[in-house]
Amino acid sequence: MGGRWSWTGVIVTVLVWLKYIGLQLGWGFQLQNPIFVYLMMLIMLGVGLNLNDRLPLPQWLESLPGMMSQVHNKADTSSVKIVLFSDFKDAVSIFFISKYFA
């Protein structure tokens, strides 16, 4: 657990330093682009229609998770382990970090 908090501290330190020297850091700048907002609207409309069984997925897209798991099973993952938000504390700390730089 110490490694995750150490890297979180390093990232926070770098981000605070970059903001201190005058760089403007933040999230959400892509939502100011009308093309991006329109594409996101279309994607969310498609997801909503699919969840209501109004827009069925193509067969190749339905079989994509199975193909990805076959590729993943072929890879040697014994030495690599990625855990995202394994603890509630990690999720809360990342939430507050993102609020600070918003």
Explain what the structure shows.
The longest helix is centred in the first third of the chain and has 19 residues, at 2-20. The chain has a domain at 13-57. With 102 residues, the protein is mainly α. It is 64% helix and 0% strand. The mean pLDDT is 76.
Strand and helix layout:
Elements: H1 2-20, H2 34-51, H3 59-62, H4 64-74, H5 88-100
Q: How does the helix and strand content classify structurally? A: mainly alpha
Q: Are there runs of 5+ residues with pLDDT below 50, and where?
A: none
**Fraction in helix:** 55-70%
User: Which H/E pattern describes the elements?
Assistant: HHHHH
Instruction: Provide a count of the helices.
Output: 5
| Cα distance spanning the termini | 27 Å
Please give a handful of descriptors for the protein shown.
64% helix, extended, mainly alpha, 102 residues, 0% strand
Short account of what is shown:
This protein has 102 residues and is mostly helical.
